[in-house]
Design goal:
single chain, four-stranded mixed beta sheet, Thioredoxin_domain, alpha+beta, 4 helices, 4 strands
């Protein structure tokens, strides 16, 4: 998952759900996005493997203000947040499971 982010933070109010104890995977999706389904499966598998990791899926069409604020240009886009909500990685398109695990490693190492 390429793309280190600039330290922007998101909280429960922005993403509409509680942050994970150790990290949060945030997926921006749209209803007719075929890769979004596969991305959801991959992120669910990874979140289930790592204790304290939450998965939050956001409907990009319903949250256009947030999409614009975060400069989300396509779906799926995945943000990896650390325990404090800082964006440590972002990637657009279908992620590889190994890349998600590696990005999570950066988020939970502290």
């Amino acid at each position: 998952m390429p793309g280190r982010d600039d330290g922007e933070r998101l909280g429960a109010a922005e993403i509409g759900a509680e942050l994970g104890e150790r990290a949060t995977l945030v997926q921006f999706s749209t209803a007719f996005c075929q890769p979004c389904r596969a991305t959801r499966r991959t992120l669910t598998e990874v979140a289930d493997m790592v204790a304290g990791v939450a998965l939050v899926e956001i409907d990009a069409e319903a949250r256009l203000e947030l999409v614009r604020a975060l400069d989300i240009e396509r779906t799926p886009t995945v943000l990896v947040l650390d325990a404090g909500g800082a964006i440590v990685r972002r990637a657009a398109g279908l992620p590889r499971k190994a890349d998600v695990i590696a990005a999570l490693g950066m988020a939970v190492r502290d």
